[in-house]
Automatic annotation (TrEMBL):
It is an enzyme of class 2 (transferase). This is Alpha-1,4 glucan phosphorylase. Its cofactor is pyridoxal 5'-phosphate. Keywords: Carbohydrate metabolism, Glycosyltransferase, Pyridoxal phosphate, Transferase. Its EC number is 2.4.1.1. Belongs to the glycogen phosphorylase family. Phosphorylase is an important allosteric enzyme in carbohydrate metabolism. Enzymes from different sources differ in their regulatory mechanisms and in their natural substrates. However, all known phosphorylases share catalytic and structural properties. InterPro entries: Glycg_phsphrylas, Glyco_trans_35, Pyridoxal_P_attach_site. The keyword Transferase applies.
Length: 820
């Protein structure tokens, strides 16, 4: 038994009755004719009976506890993944529902397979938000997640002739059973227009006269706690037109223009922007950001005002966590309400506002640091640009000028405005100035935030910048995705690890226990077989579970260096061609990655992986020693299949570029050994697991900086390394694209003529060497299994429960609210 029974009135019999009742009365079907999808919906509705009631109790209990302080997690992305199995596990109803469905002639796995992934995020940042929501509710902290109800999530990826093609992801096509539309909390959001000055007695005041409104309609998705009654809310805003369409125009035959306003309004939450870690400056994206912030801030204030007459104590009842700068416009929005609507004077308003916001920085990449043209903000949000101006003026004159009198350079660097054409608003500067705490997401990352990104802010506000190392929820990323391993762990150390992952340390003593080691190995093998079957069924590629399953799964980015991995594959392939007896353990290189649709080189790398895969996989001379697999349409669900099957976790970003990474934690917990650079959370992973149980290679942050400062010349590395030269040349020729010679040369070009901005060539030799060590290590089966088990045993730190407790202690200061 993995899960404690929660106090629930739901017996197998009651569940059966409820499922059948929903088939018949909610879904207009019955148990004789229902499709699998209908069965799935009925099962979800049966669960909702328990879930919604608990959500209500949680909400009420929070009010009763004197409006216990609540964290509001503001994020443009929540990559929640499928909820059916997650909810079953967290409710402790997995066994009962399995039995109930069984007795009704249905298979629980097939039924939960009916759910489509809600892919309301791009990658790590969105998935982190989902893990945090799971931990917050499980730890019984009052929390609301605020996001957008995108009609289309992240595009579905297909591969056609090796190239990425994008298809729309209509994830809730005919509705989604775990969400409920709360139309009574709908709000109208102003936009555009101008600002008026007027006098109230002697005081000059401002008011925004908008020229347009959008309606925000909330959809609530319950977030079910594990082994607790608490159910929190993820509130996603859908944008609609305030006015229905113009019937007169419609009747006169002007169909398109009659619908114009409606179509335009609905476009705001139509689709998730697919650009991970790159800012774009598009008007619709700014409106998305503002729409989320305006709806959420209003909602928070409405909740507060049910209990308090003024907003003076807003920061006692609420904190708003900004998930990167994407929702930073919430800062001037709250200021606008305090100043213009509440009539609070500036200094007091600023104090209130600043105590309400905290900001998480997730990147140092310059292209990901958001800026917005001043003119664009002035057009869409005329009052906000005035407020930003005032915040900046007061900050520069009262804070910066005091600290560094007459220092023009400091003013230029710290100003919220970046001069130039066009002038820009720097959202990161606004976020640091407007928040009481700012955090990085791994130790190394936070150090770099302090030393490289915001050193002056750190000097001005020495206590503001803190670290909270990321984590992942052990419920989804161990218990749910690897049930056999979860079972084995529980059988030996008890099930409490699921709520306190540090208890995994108890597994360490079994790392030398013959029986345990064998069981652990059998589970890994079975997981590999399952993935091998999927690969066979979907891509018609045969892979052997004897081979090392070497996995790189993440967004496609130059800084993540999937092309470094590719160069190594080519190197092994050349060695095998040169010497058929070349001594290596067989290897399956598994990739899954989506590229932003406009990111040319990233798409070229996907194409190259697929072209190389086609040639290598069908080359009989190498006798299947290498297989290359690119699994299309990476998603949370696919990750749940791949991660438990991995032997090797590729974490090979250029040092200093990956803020944290979280896939590294999931893979390590599931027994993959990290092959990685000293970047992001890899540093802490290696620290926890011990250097002997990971393969760390490559330039450190300091070495990267020194090399760049001394004038990095990628050609030198090619000149010194014949193998490297040969594989780069391969990319320029027609070896892998006989029908289009030179089709892969853009990659070589970026590495040589392009200056190799992410030092792929500089790290190549060290990477190949680390790979050779790994190959050798894998062949010592006992030692490898030992390391694998120690990875599981020693990575307890990387639970998102620990991250949340860090946030609570250092930033949020929440108290638990237990629902009885
Ligand atoms: F650019 N991350 C992401 F910082 O997935 F906003 N998308 C993003 O747009 C950004 C960051 C942003 C990732 C980081 O790359 C990764 O290192 C980190 O583990 C993750 O955010 C969660 O902190």
């Amino acid at each position: 038994m993995l899960t404690k029974e929660k106090p629930t009135s739901l017996s197998v019999e009651k569940l059966k009755l409820s499922i059948v009742r929903h088939l018949r009365t909610t879904l207009a079907s019955n148990e004789h004719v229902a499709s699998q999808n209908t069965w799935w919906q009925a099962t979800c509705f049966a669960l909702n009976e328990e879930i919604f009631e608990n959500a209500w109790s949680t909400f009420k209990q929070t009010r009763l506890d004197h409006c216990a302080r609540t964290v509001n997690y503001l994020s443009l992305e929540f990559l929640i993944g499928r909820l059916t199995t997650n909810n079953l596990i967290n409710l402790g109803l997995e066994d009962k529902v399995r039995q109930a469905l069984n007795e009704l002639g249905q298979d629980i796995n097939a039924i939960s397979g009916e759910e489509r992934d809600p892919s309301l995020g791009n990658g790590g940042l969105g998935r982190l938000a989902a893990c945090f929501m799971d931990s917050l509710v499980t730890l019984e902290y009052p929390a609301v997640g605020y996001g957008l109800h995108y009609q289309y999530g992240l595009f579905r990826q297909g591969i056609k002739n090796g190239e990425q093609v994008e298809y729309p992801d209509n994830w809730r096509d005919y509705g989604y059973p775990f969400e409920v539309c709360r139309s009574s909390f709908a709000l109208d959001i102003p936009l555009y227009g101008h600002v008026e000055t007027y006098y109230q007695g002697d005081t000059m005041r401002k008011r925004w006269v908008p020229s347009q409104y959008l309606r925000g309609v909330p959809w609530d998705i319950p977030v079910v706690g594990f082994e607790v009654k608490n159910v929190n809310t993820l509130r996603l805003w859908e944008c609609r037109a305030v006015n229905e369409f113009d019937l007169n125009q419609f009747n006169q035959g002007c169909f398109a223009s009659a619908l114009h306003e409606k179509v335009k309004a609905e476009s705001v939450t139509q689709v998730l922007y697919p650009n991970d870690e790159s800012e774009m400056g598009k008007e619709l994206r700014l409106i998305q950001q503002y729409f989320l912030c305006a709806c959420s801030v209003r909602d928070i204030i409405n909740r507060h005002k049910e209990h308090f007459a003024s907003l003076d104590n807003l920061c006692d009842t609420n904190v708003m966590q900004l998930n990167d700068t994407h929702p930073a416009i919430a800062i001037p929005e709250l200021m606008r309400i305090l100043l213009d609507e509440e009539g609070i004077e500036w200094d007091k308003a600023w104090k209130i506002s600043q105590r309400c916001f905290a900001y998480t920085n997730h990147t140092l990449l310059p292209e990901a640091l958001e800026t917005w043209p001043v003119d664009l903000i002035a057009k869409v949000l005329p009052r906000h640009i005035e407020i930003i101006n005032e915040i900046n003026y007061l900050f520069l004159s009262q804070v910066v000028e005091k600290q560094w009198p007459g220092d023009q350079e400091k003013l230029i660097k710290l100003s919220i405005f970046e001069e130039g054409y066009p002038r820009q608003v720097r959202m990161a500067n606004l976020s640091v100035i407007g928040s009481y705490k700012v955090n990085g997401v791994a130790k190394l990352h936070t150090q770099l935030v302090k030393s490289d990104l915001f050193p002056e802010f750190d000097a001005l506000f020495p206590d503001r910048l803190v670290n909270v190392t990321n984590g992942v929820t052990p419920r989804r990323w161990l218990r749910q995705c690897n049930p056999a391993l979860a079972q084995l762990i529980s059988a030996n150390i008890g099930p409490q690890w699921q709520k306190d992952l540090s208890l995994l340390a108890g597994v360490e003593k079994y790392a030398t226990d013959k029986k345990f080691v064998q069981q652990y190995a059998d589970i890994k093998l079975a997981n590999k077989q399952k993935l091998a079957n999927y690969i066979k069924d979907n891509l018609a590629i045969d892979v052997s579970t004897e081979a090392i399953f070497d996995v790189q799964i993440k967004r496609l980015h130059e800084y993540k260096r999937q092309h470094l991995n590719l160069l190594h594959i080519l190197t092994l392939y050349r060695r095998l061609l040169a010497d058929p007896n070349y001594d290596m353990h067989s290897r399956v290189f598994i990739f899954a990655a989506k590229a932003a649709p406009g990111y040319r080189l990233a798409k070229d790398i996907i194409y190259a992986i697929n072209k190389v895969a086609a040639v290598i996989n069908s080359d009989e001379r190498i006798k299947g020693k290498i297989k290359v697999v690119f699994l299309p349409d990476y998603s949370v669900t696919l990750a749940e299949l791949i991660i438990p099957a991995a032997d090797v976790s590729e974490q090979i970003s250029t040092a200093g570029k990956e803020a944290s990474g979280t896939g590294n934690m999931k893979l390590g917990l599931n027994g993959a050994l990290t092959l990685g650079t000293l970047d992001g959370a890899n540093v802490e992973i290696a620290e926890e697991v011990g250097d002997e149980h990971a393969f760390i290679f490559g330039l450190t942050v300091d070495q990267v900086n020194a090399l760049k400062a001394s004038g990095y010349r990628p050609q030198d590395y090619i000149a010194q390394n014949d193998e490297l030269k040969a594989v780069v040349d391969w990319l320029c020729g027609d070896k892998f694209t006989p029908e289009e010679p030179g089709r892969l040369s853009s990659i070589a070009h970026s590495l040589v003529q392009g200056g190799d901005p992410y030092l792929v060539l500089a790290d190549f030799a060290a990477y190949v060497e680390a790979q050779a060590q790994l190959d050798k290590a894998y062949r010592n089966r006992t030692a490898w299994l030992h390391s694998t088990i120690l990875n599981t045993a020693r990575l307890g730190k990387f639970s998102s429960d620990r991250s949340i407790e860090d946030y609570v202690r250092d930033i949020w200061h929440l108290k638990k609210v237990s629902v009885k």
